[in-house]
Every structure is written in structure tokens, then in C-alpha cells.
Amino acid sequence: MKTVLITGGARGIGRAIAEKFADMGFDVAINYNTSKKQAEMLKNELLKKGAKAEIFCADVADADAVSKMVEDINGTFGGIDVLVNNAGIALPQGVFTDVTECDMKKVFDVDVFGLMNCTKAVIPQMVRKKSGKIINISSIWGVCGGSCEAVYSSAKAAVIGFTKALAKELGPSGITVNCVAPGLIDTDMNGHLSKEDIEDFCEAVPLGRVGKPDDVAEAVWLLASGGADYITGQVLNVDGGML
Ligand code: NAP
User: Fold this and answer.
1) Can you give the pTM of this predicted structure?
2) What CATH number has the domain bearing residue 223?
3) Most Cβ neighbours (<10 Å): which of 17, 164, 207, 231?
């Protein structure tokens, strides 16, 4: 049985990824930071479906907490075969000169260093097994830059650079590292957008709608499955054809 760790797995895109992997027969380690209740509810749903699932609390920005979490997951499931670095935060849209230093650090601490902490903690076991798949959730703003999203865009661009470099470093160890770059996806992260904002955005989307968390989960699964064994260092946009 294979195990997946999904960071920020209790809600939004992470939750859809957890459901997909459970459906495909994986044991599922659900990381959460603040959403304990939602994590527990998801775990119970997955158990009811006959999957094996457990929840693990850690702030991904805290390297010691991440190491402890990975130890606990190894104790529970015997190892991690797939890491999905999904946990992330965004700032409210605004001009760059208004962004505080504290907010800049907060975004990089979670979206970049958090992702690096989790990756660092799972690499040794993957190298020992000479196999593993790491899938990082970036954003189309990391690919093309989003106006009034300079900090988030640069953090998500860093995720792409990290992915491409690490894919080269870990390829000889049989580990693939890829990115999924979602467009606008219907989750709490976009809860502040008005109906009009969303309609305006959709005019630039050839498929004419916002994405669903399941759309992203399917792309993650694609990259985690055996069919993607020869794909590494790539960015898969899930954006309805926008870019
Ligand atoms: P969301 O609904 O706001 O959920 C964010 C998730 O990240 C939550 O599960 C949250 O966990 C977790 N998280 C945040 N800070 C964390 C930390 N310090 N440690 C551990 N977990 C933390 O967002 P989403 O839309 O599902 O986004 C998921 C990923 O997709 C993010 O990386 C986001 O940047 C990316 N993305 C989203 C969109 C979009 O339009 N929604 C587009 C492109 C990319 P807790 O609730 O437990 O704190």
C-alpha cells in the first residue's frame, strides 16, 4: 500500500486531493494547521469509504514541527511515497508598495520555506527507496505574474524554480518533482471575490468557468500515477486554457 502526504489537506484543493488519492487506494496522511475539525471530518469520511487515513498537525513553516510530523507519519504508515505540497496562503490583492515586510515574510514562510521544509523532510526516505513523487502546487500567477499579487506571484514562481532544480538533482535517485499551476479555483482563498469579479475573470478563460478543486486533484493524480514516471521538472497549468 502506498502513502501520500498532503499538506493543508483538510479543506479546499488539499481536501479534493485527499479524496482522490483515497479513492485510488492510497493511505492518506492529512496535514492541517488550524482546521482540526475539518481534518477530523475528512478523516472520518475517508475511513467510512474503507480508506486508511490519519490527521497530522503541523505549521509547515516550522521545520521542527514538520520533521516530527514526518516521523509520526512514518510510524503510522511506514513511509511516504508521494508528497503533495499544497499548503499555501495569499495576501489580499493590492499594490506592492502597500505590502508590509511582515506580510511578505509570512507568504514566503508558508508558500516557499514551508514547501521546502516538507520536501527536505521526505527526501531521505525517498532516496533510500530510490523512488518517490513530489508534486508542488504553484499558481498561474507564478508562471505569468499577477497584477496586485506581486508577493504571491513571486513566491509561486520560486516554487517553480525549486521544482525544476530539484527535479534535476533527484532524477538520478528515481524521484520525480513536478508542479501543478492552478488558475482561479473555487475555494475559501477566493471567498472575497464578488460575483462580478468572477464573471470578469471568466471572460479570459477559454473554458468559460472557474476551476473546481477536483480539477486540480485530477492533475495531481496524473502526475502521481505510474503513467507519469518519465515526467519530471514540469509545470502543468490547470487554468481552463487561460495561459
Ligand atoms: P484555502 O482554501 O485557503 O486552503 C489553504 C490550505 O493551506 C488550508 O488547508 C490550510 O490549512 C493550509 N495552510 C495554510 N497555511 C498553512 C501552514 N502554515 N501550515 C500548514 N497548512 C497551512 O486555499 P486553496 O485554494 O485550497 O489553496 C491550496 C493551494 O493551491 C495553495 O498553495 C494555493 O496557493 C494554491 N492555489 C490556489 C488557487 C485558487 O484559486 N484557489 C489558485 C492557484 C493556486 P489550515 O486550514 O489547517 O490552516
Assistant:
1) 0.99
2) 3.40.50.720
3) 17
